[in-house]
Amino acid sequence: MDNAPTARRSFNRRRLFTGIAGVAAGTLVGGLVIPNAAAAAQDGHGLRIVDRNENAGRLQYYRFATDAIGWDPAVNVLLPDGYHTSGKRYPVLYLLHGGAGDFRDFHLHHNIIGLTAGREMIVVMPDGGTAGWYSNPVNTNVGPRDWETFHMAQLLPWIESNFRTFAEYDGRAVAGFSMGGFGALKYAAKYYGHFCSVSSHSGPASLRRDFGLVVHWANVSSGAAELGGGTVYGAPLWDEARVSADNPMERLPSYHHKRIFLAAGTSPDPINWFDTVNETQVLAGQREFRGALHNAGIPHEFHEVPGGHFVRPELLQADINGMIGRMKRAG
């Protein structure tokens, strides 16, 4: 089904509240809000800002019109303490939400503001679709849903044009949970020169294992929740080249010289079927991926911990510490 009407209704409510916040943050002159010094972001790279809240605090909000997506996706940009006065450039973490989530997940549910307090890094948290799989789909019946294009060809250069970042390999990390953990592994491999650190928290790392169970799940979930019956990888026949291009197991050389952080649960909830299937498959795929990394002589950090399919704040905190140690220091 087409989720766009729901997304637009939600957008209109958010626009109302963020518009009110924008008035509080700026100066009202002749009916127009003149934003304060923090409001420096401009259109560009195929993105047109249709809503924003730049309030001189750490968390900045933007919503865009883009030809890549058939509705207006949003992004939260979390700035470090002192950003507005320091004059420094900062490394950037692109943090990707899981399925059925959106750009607000890490802010509302996972305390990303607290976890990054006092840390000199920018965190970019974009929409990725209900079941977008961080991909440009093979087919869609609801208009464009080219999430990979939005993130890599539009949003990333827009961030670097509008914020003080290091536009280089050692200045960027990518991480995510579940579907977003897969997206992080995929982007780090396909765009090798973009990210020096990649982290997958309960994210699939092997698309073809168990007769392609993850590919089938991506097709079924995207068809039902994102693409109106379309699919990410094609059905009944897959676009095999796309599967191979996205599959971490088939991109091992692309993980050389990166910091790699993997986490998965070892004891999914036996009562929750969905949780059990998700984390059981995630754990098996990450173990396969880790074995391949080991055989290829590629260093990596991994954590197998009790529990099922959810974000573990202590591991996210440890991961953030490791990213900061790997990326270029602010200055």
Automatic annotation (TrEMBL):
<comment type="similarity">
    <text>Belongs to the mycobacterial A85 antigen family.</text>
</comment>
<dbReference type="InterPro" id="IPR006311">
    <property type="entry name" value="TAT_signal"/>
</dbReference>
<dbReference type="Pfam" id="PF00756">
    <property type="entry name" value="Esterase"/>
</dbReference>
<dbReference type="InterPro" id="IPR000801">
    <property type="entry name" value="Esterase-like"/>
</dbReference>
<dbReference type="InterPro" id="IPR050583">
    <property type="entry name" value="Mycobacterial_A85_antigen"/>
</dbReference>
<protein>
    <recommendedName>
        <fullName>Acyl-CoA:diacylglycerol acyltransferase</fullName>
        <ecNumber>2.3.1.122</ecNumber>
        <ecNumber>2.3.1.20</ecNumber>
    </recommendedName>
</protein>
<dbReference type="InterPro" id="IPR029058">
    <property type="entry name" value="AB_hydrolase_fold"/>
</dbReference>
<dbReference type="GO" id="GO:0016787">
    <property type="term" value="F:hydrolase activity"/>
</dbReference>
<dbReference type="GO" id="GO:0004144">
    <property type="term" value="F:diacylglycerol O-acyltransferase activity"/>
</dbReference>
<keyword id="KW-0808">Transferase</keyword>
<dbReference type="GO" id="GO:0050348">
    <property type="term" value="F:trehalose O-mycolyltransferase activity"/>
</dbReference>
<keyword id="KW-0378">Hydrolase</keyword>
<keyword id="KW-0012">Acyltransferase</keyword>
